[in-house]
Amino acid sequence: LSLSPVRDPIFFSFPAKGHEYQCEGTHMLKVTRRTREVDVILNQQTAEDIARLGDTLAEETTREQVTEAGTNRQAKATARRIEELREQVDAETLKLTLRALPVSKWAQALAAHRNDNGTNDMFGTAAAALPLMLDSATIGGKPVADEDKTEQAWRNLFDELTDGQFTPIWQAIAELNGTAADPKAAFDLASQV
Predict the structure, then answer these.
(1) What is the 3-state secondary structure (H, E, C) of the chain?
(2) What pLDDT does residue 4 have?
């Protein structure tokens, strides 16, 4: 991508398959980074109960599809129980909205939390990245206090979470920041069709 100012609007061009396409715009170039929402139930027992009920519900709905026996009352009852538990734990559910980091900030978070053997400390990386990635953080519908959104506060929380509670946070951080988003191969392939 080459940028060259021409007149007032921004003018830029990018080569594609031997041709140069030109686009004009009147606004500055803007990057929109992806976001992802993550819900973490802080009550471990209830979180495990919901996960178990989810497995049961999956079995019950699969059984219904196989037998085609009509309405599955068991599955409906299990789904109702999951919804009841969700409402009960709302006050204990940490809801995070995360936004991908610019490459330099993600690289800094990775470099600062490298273990002696060369692997990354995922807890340290996650704790460092979260304050930079947070668009919002609520618990029970109320904003999380600023002092609870620091790197050290996240690290302390991670020390208390189970793997099952931490994993969705780490997966969101890794997916938002580690996924390649270079559409060139798709553009090249599409131009050959």
Answers:
(1) CEECCCCCCEEEEEEECCEEEEEEECCCCCCCCCEEEEEEECCHHHHHHHHHHHHHHHHHHHHHHHHCCCCCHHHHHHHHHHHHHHHHCHHHEEEEEEECCCHHHHHHHHHHCECCCCCECHHHHHHHHHHHHEEEEEECCEECCHHHCCHHHHHHHHHHCCHHHHHHHHHHHHHHHHCCCCCHHHHHHHHHC
(2) 39
